[in-house]
Structure formats: C-alpha cells, structure tokens
C-alpha cells in the first residue's frame, strides 16, 4: 500500500482529491497549515499533518516515507518557490511521483502572469528528474459558488467583464478524479492532462441557472475598470487584481474557450456539465 500526501489539502481541489482517493487502496496523508482543519481531514479517512509548505524543514518531515505527492497551491505570487521546496523534500525522501495542479495554458513564456507562474512550476518539475504529472484545469465551475453566489441570491445576477465570449469551465470533481487516477498508477508518469469542458457564454450559464433555481438570473457585463475598482475596494492586493484582470482580458478575447478530450480519454466519461453542476449545487443559489 503506497503512502500519498496531498499538499494544499484544505482547499477545494485538495479536499476533493482526498475524497477521490478513498477507494484506491492507498494510505492518505493531508498536509495542512492549521490544526483547526484536522477534524475535517480525519472525517475523510486521511491522516492530517501540520505543514507549512513555505517551510523546507516541515516539508522534509512531511514527505518522509511518502511514495507520491499531490501539490496544489492557492492563487499566489511566484508559486514556483513552493514547487521547488517540494521538489527538494521529494528528492531527500526518494518520492517517486509528484502530481502538480497548474493551469490550462501554463507556459513560462506566456502572455499573462498566471500562465507564467504555472509554467515555471512545470519547468522545475520537468528538470527535477522526478516523475511528474501535470493536471491543467480551465476555470472552475465552483467560481459560481465562491465568487457569485451572494449576488445571485441577493440581486439575481452576477457581474464579470467578459463580454459575450465563450468560457470553458470544469468541475473540481473532474479535476480531482484525474489527479486520483494519476496518483495511483505508474502509467501516467510525465504526462499532461488539459481539463476544460464545453464552453458557454456567461449569458448561457445564466440561462441554465435560471431554469434550475426557477427565477431569472442575469449576467451583467461590467466595464473592466469597474471590475478592477470593485476588487481593490474589497481589499484584494493589487498584484492579485492585476493578475485577475489579465485573465479576464484573455477570457473576453475567447482564449479560454478551449475544449479538451483528455478527461474523456482518461475516464471514458463526459465532463460534469454546467447544468449538472448547478443542479448538484442548487442550494447555494436559493
């Protein structure tokens, strides 16, 4: 039985990866920064470990006797710093495989900051000599819950500066399923999985959501400056606002409308659709 540690275990992706590993005949460890997460991790039949993944010594300790690592980082500046620390710990402990969640379009020479951040992490892993698998998701359908559910409930609408562009999105459950498959096989060493479902416009997402919740939900296309002003006004750091605005810009140009067959080729299933996602999560919007 192999030992797998999930780093970033208290986030949407990390926690769902743990859930998807439940029936895989592996021993699951969960690296979290705060002990307040221990109880929820234990309920998922995983052993929590307190580890700050910006701390080399704590990572070295956490990766002892581990066979594989799943790494996901929050939206942050220079995530390649974390990736390098994990690589260092993995080499010290003879870890054989790292599955890294990055982003669709990852490219260290990419046109936007988020692509470059993701690409630099991938470059480090390619150069490390450790077996890797990259899971590259497009935008999350969970963004509707995390960022828009309040205005949907209170104002029957959501606000984005995306024009009428089509946007590819993916459910976190599909991301985690791919990660769990990669983490429990040697077959996917040094492979890349791009994950993006069928692209719809925000108006189409709003129409589907309206049908599910039984009331009219509207997408409001706001000016870019208004969006930036709102984020800064809510206390978001300028570096993050700038990165998000770059992403919104390329989304508006239709550059994130890509559909990938990788999920179907790997699992034999279709992506969770926007309709199914809204039906499964209806309680967040009513």
What is this entry, summarized?
The chain is an alpha/beta fold and 286 residues long.
Write a structural description:
- The chain contains 13 helices and 13 strands.
- It is globular.
- The strands form 4 sheets. The protein has a 7-stranded parallel β-sheet, with helices on both faces. A two-stranded parallel sheet has the order 7-10.
- It is of the alpha/beta class and 286 residues long.
Write the layout of secondary structure elements.
Layout: E1 3-7, H1 12-20, E2 27-32, H2 38-42, E3 47-50, H3 56-62, E4 68-71, H4 80-92, E5 97-101, H5 113-128, E6 131-137, E7 139-140, H6 143-146, H7 149-155, E8 157-160, E9 166-167, E10 169-170, H8 172-183, E11 191-195, E12 200-201, H9 202-213, E13 218-221, H10 224-233, H11 238-252, H12 262-267, H13 274-280
Parallel strand pairs: 1-2, 1-4, 2-3, 4-5, 5-6, 6-11, 7-10, 8-13
Antiparallel strand pairs: 9-12
Strand content: 15-25%
**Widest sheet: strand order?**
3-2-1-4-5-6-11
Mean pLDDT over the full residue set: 96
Which regions are unreliable across 5 or more consecutive residues at pLDDT < 50?
none
Write the element-wise H/E pattern from the N-terminal end onward: EHEHEHEHEHEEHHEEEHEEHEHHHH
Distance between the termini: 44 Å
Radius of gyration: 19 Å
Q: Given the helix and strand composition, which structural class is it?
A: alpha/beta
Rough shape? globular
- The percent of residues in helical segments reads 40-55%
Strand runs, count: 13
Number of helices: 13
**How is the biggest beta sheet arranged?**
7 strands, parallel
């Amino acid at each position: 039985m192999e030992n797998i540690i999930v780093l970033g275990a208290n986030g949407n992706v990390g926690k769902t990866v743990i859930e998807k590993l439940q029936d895989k005949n592996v021993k699951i460890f969960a690296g979290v920064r705060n002990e307040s997460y221990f109880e929820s991790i234990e309920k998922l039949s995983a052993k929590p470990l307190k580890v700050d993944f910006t701390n080399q010594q704590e990572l070295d300790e956490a990766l002892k006797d581990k066979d594989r690592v799943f790494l996901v980082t929050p939206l942050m500046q220079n995530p390649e710093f974390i990736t390098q620390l994990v690589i260092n710990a993995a080499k010290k402990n003879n870890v054989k495989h790292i599955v890294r969640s990055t982003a669709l379009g990852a490219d260290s020479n990419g046109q936007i900051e988020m692509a470059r951040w993701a690409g630099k992490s991938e470059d480090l892993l390619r150069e490390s000599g450790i077996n890797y698998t990259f899971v590259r998701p497009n935008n999350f359908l969970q963004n509707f819950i995390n960022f828009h559910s309040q205005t949907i409930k209170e104002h029957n609408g959501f606000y984005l500066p995306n024009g009428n562009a089509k946007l590819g999105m993916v459910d976190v459950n599909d991301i985690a399923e791919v990660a769990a498959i990669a983490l429990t096989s040697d077959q996917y060493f040094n492979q890349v999985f791009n994950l993006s479902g069928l692209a719809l416009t925000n108006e189409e997402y709003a129409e589907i959501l309206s049908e599910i919740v039984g009331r009219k939900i509207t997408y409001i296309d706001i000016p870019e400056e208004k969006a930036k002003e709102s984020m800064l006004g809510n206390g978001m750091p300028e570096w993050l606002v700038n990165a998000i605005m770059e992403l919104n810009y390329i989304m508006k140009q239709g550059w994130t409308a890509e559909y990938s067959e990788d999920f179907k080729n790997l699992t034999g299933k279709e992506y969770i659709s926007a309709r199914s996602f809204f039906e499964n999560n209806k309680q967040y919007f009513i």
